[in-house]
User: Fold 1-aminocyclopropane-1-carboxylate oxidase homolog 11-like from Punica granatum.
Amino acid sequence: MECAQGCTFVCHYYPPCPEPELTLGAWSHSDPWFLTLLHQDQGGGLQVLHNRQWVPVRPIPGSLIVNVGDFLQIISNRRFISDEHRVAADSIGPRISTAYFFKGSQECA
Ligand SMILES: O=C(O)CCC(=O)C(=O)O
Ligand SMILES: [Fe+2]
Assistant:
């Protein structure tokens, strides 16, 4: 199970923001690793860049979001594209999300 060696589980806590129009919960980025399994709470907030527009990712109860990472994009020769995403700030909160990063290793490539 070499592929499971480089895994990290993180929990994000976003407190309510008094002026959400001035900032973001998380800045635009793509995940550098292989694959991310993400769970956001029912408040939503995750946005993905699609055709140069930020599109909200609607929370679906009981579902997980799968983000392709940069490493998978590279080793798949861009068959899978890592997505640019960010988190909007919100005055209603807090917001909680959990992410499980599969980092991958040379043995898996
Ligand atoms: O909190 C979220 O929904 C996204 C978190 C995220 O993009 C990350 O941990 O890389
Ligand atoms: Fe991310």
